[in-house]
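quick one, 181 residues, struct below
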Amino acid sequence: MTRPETIVPEEPISPFPITQESRIISGFGRGSSELGIPTANIPINKELNDLDTGIYYGWCKLLPHSQEEDELFIRQNGKQVKVNHGRTLCKEELTALPMVMSIGWNPFYHNKEKAAEVHIIHKFDTDFYGASVKYNVLGYIRPELNYTTKEALIDDINLDIKIAKEILETKDNYSQFKYKL
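---
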């Protein structure tokens, strides 16, 4: 399947906006290490599961859990990860930030479980495993696609990021949701 044109309505239309809060969970660790595009994984709930697989855009806000102690966990691939619950985030990183969200099976990686992965469009200096994220999903960019190369996947993700930034920064009917988190 080739990438279809992204059509953006003047304002979010049903079922959007979808506003939720979730704890960030452990993913596969591929976003940062393999793709250079880190993601925060969140559990698939009924409302997200009911959406078509694909790429979505909106706003999100990280919520640290400052009362919790650091801990370590080991990913399925054996890599050890420090969980700091978002305590090291700076003030700017605690504001509403633009995001793209992938919901689907990640066919390039042959996932056996459906996943929801949020890429926050910001360069973070530190990890925030164990924090929570409040987000609003405002619209749909494209369906989930399979790729023959990792480079093609990365190129499409970067195009998704560019499209989401443009929508969220230039369309008032979308930018206003930044202040509703």
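The first helix runs from residue 30 to 35.
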